[in-house]
Amino acid sequence: MVIMGDGLHNFSHGLAIGAAFTESLSSGLSTSVAVFCHELPHELGDFAVLLKAGMTVRQAILYNALSALMAFLGMAVGILIGHYADHVSMWVFALTAGLFMYVALVDMMPEMLHSDAGEHGFSHCGVFLLQNAGILLGFTIMLLIAVFQHRIQLDLGY
């Protein structure tokens, strides 16, 4: 169930990235950075769940990689949608933003609030500071991309 859900989740992120790159380079880059910042802890969490379910490290990596490949399929579909259907990209962005909010509010917030850091030797204050540093880092990255998006250029050398 985790692998199937993660595959659909990754497909939707690929859709957003593909549609964003058809809009503009800066939109595609900012969406890619947002998806990366969102997916890194999510994939690590899925990896831990798969290990806890009894998979070997090799199996967990393989199944996690297979579900991650759905993002490439989603990206191809997103590029096609963004290229051939003009106003559908906004619906793709709305769907993906909803998924980001859902995962943040339903999955991450309860984990942050009910952390068992004290049982593992970490202070609650240190965990609080680390969590908020991560949130502020993500916010800062997105703010910098938004402020300097007109200066972002891709130099391919030709």
Structural account:
With 158 residues, the chain is mainly α. It has one domain (2-112). The chain contains six helices and no strands. Helix 1 runs parallel beside helix 3 and helix 1 (2-23) runs parallel beside helix 4. It is found in: Cell membrane. It is a multi-pass membrane protein.
Task: Give a quick rundown of the structure.
With 158 residues, this protein is an all-alpha fold. It contains six helices and no strands. It catalyses: Zn(2+)(in) = Zn(2+)(out).
Which descriptors apply to this entry?
158 residues; 6 helices; Zinc transporter ZIP6; mainly alpha; transmembrane helix; 80% helix
Structural class: mainly alpha
Order of helices and strands: HHHHHH
Largest sheet: none
Rg to the nearest angstrom? 18 Å
Topology:
Layout: H1 2-23, H2 25-52, H3 57-68, H4 70-84, H5 88-113, H6 124-147
